């Protein structure tokens, strides 16, 4: 250990610790723009580029960027004397002079870290003339890149390259033309981008934002010829409250339903319902593959991979085109919901497909792209018309001047709103496979589970494995979240060395609770842990906690689909993958 003094406070830290981290330990917060650390995962973005975090080290001539300067024994550091504040203000003015001034209409306004620093440092005028308009906007199905707003912090590059191992973004050009962009400055749509949205979840400015479909939804809600229904993803309820000042981990399921009713949706349904449906189809596929394997079929594809995360689907289509027959063919819950809504439910209420508008509220950015895929359209009409994120829903509720915090709790509508605890845990890493195990165990063994929780499948380790006893048959389960971790497990499958029977993969660290469309968590693992706990508490308070016991799902099969895996179920609820 070494000891140093920061703002007159003595602090002891391990050798090799940066001044920034030593200061945090001493309770001193130093402002930064480029520095970012994701949820204690040991990966840190510290290019030392923005120079906002400079501090004075007594006895040294130059100020030191605290995020890349190691603390040393006996150092005496001042983090906010006049010299430091002057330097920070100058740096900030230089960055702002090179940034567009359209804060009033910027998608990030109010949540922009550059804007907050400008306020904090009381910037009122700029003595420098910069270049504010150099790049065209690049709009993909999910993400808008407004690269004039890029401040070269390189956080997105860290997420895309180091965490996700996608490599869609890197620094290009020099001087005023420097930016982070896909290779050869191609459009994001033509790059290997998966639309996971992790880059925009860490972008401090409006350089990377989601494509916003709220106005399309407002138009549909104002059209009296349309019936507009909405589904809400499992993870949204565990994070939406944060946008209204509630503590992370506060469940707001009932208030969210009330808000959607006030916004004018004709029916408020739950993606948890179709998560239960996914389990029926995916669980059946798992059991079919296992039974074939047990009977000596050497052609059977194991492990089976979950397929509900569209960022993950994009990733394996781009990177593992030789393994397209390995994942389950089950559509995601978002898409199963759309397919059932525009057939079974539309018939029930006597509305034609074209007059039924299906909206989804998702923690995810890739869901916007997923609902536009050609496989999920009938004669050009999408099964899910619009997908908006948790953040966009919060903005919509604020725009409508709804007093969210004082809303009463409401229940989802029937029949696509009834769900089990297994449906809600989809929102956490490990939740899909736990839900599948609850159902597959009972269907395979014919016995009731004594304890529905599979604690060994839970946790936040990036790659986890567990054995699950299916009455004498021991299943090896793998779980990965974050695409870099997924790549490791997929490389084993490709090499034929995977020990697993089934693997759950979610593109975003933490699973959907950490999705690219969730309220910004600023890399704090505590926020993800609280959201995860909220999801498990919703599961616990449900009376029915296994997908195959959901009465509305049983009725759907009896009235409409027949058996899980039936011809009709296949045509509506399964899909194929493309390289
Ligand atoms: Fe997810 Fe899913 S869990 S993919 O993370 O399978 O987005 O929440 O809605 O479709 O159910 C997301 C969440 C979500 C789907 C479900
Ligand atoms: Fe990379 Fe994901 Fe961002 Fe695409 S959305 S650029 S894959 S981090």
Structural account:
- The protein is of the alpha/beta class and 579 residues long.
- It has 18 helices and 22 strands.
- Helix 8 (271-294) crosses helix 10 (333-349) and helix 8 crosses helix 14.
- The model has no long low-confidence stretch (mean pLDDT 96).
Main features:
single chain, 579 residues, 5-stranded mixed β-sheet, 4-stranded parallel β-sheet, 18 helices, binds iron/sulfur cluster
Task: Briefly say what this structure is.
It is built from 18 helices and 22 strands. It is α/β, with parallel strands linked by helices and 579 residues long. The N and C termini lie far apart (52 Å).
Query: Shape from CA axes?
Result: globular
Chain oligomer state? single chain
Largest sheet: 5 strands, mixed
Number of strands: 22
The strand line-up of the biggest sheet is 2-1-7-5-6
End-to-end C-alpha gap: 52 Å
How many helices?
18
Share of residues in strands = 5-15%
Integer-rounded radius of gyration = 25 Å
Spans of 5+ residues with little confidence (pLDDT < 50)? Answer: none
Topology at a glance:
Blueprint: E1 2-6, E2 9-13, H1 19-25, E3 36-37, E4 44-45, E5 54-57, E6 64-65, E7 76-78, H2 82-97, H3 113-120, E8 138-139, E9 143-145, H4 155-163, E10 170-172, E11 179-181, H5 198-202, E12 208-210, H6 214-221, E13 227-232, H7 253-263, E14 267-270, H8 271-294, E15 304-305, H9 310-319, H10 333-349, E16 356-362, H11 366-370, E17 377-378, E18 381-382, E19 386-389, H12 390-399, H13 421-424, H14 431-445, E20 463-470, E21 473-481, H15 483-495, E22 502-506, H16 525-541, H17 551-561, H18 567-573
Parallel strand pairs: 1-7, 13-14, 13-16, 15-22, 16-19, 21-22
Antiparallel strand pairs: 1-2, 3-4, 5-6, 5-7, 8-9, 9-12, 10-11, 17-18, 20-21
Bound molecules: 2 iron/2 sulfur/5 carbonyl/2 water inorganic cluster and iron/sulfur cluster (SF4).
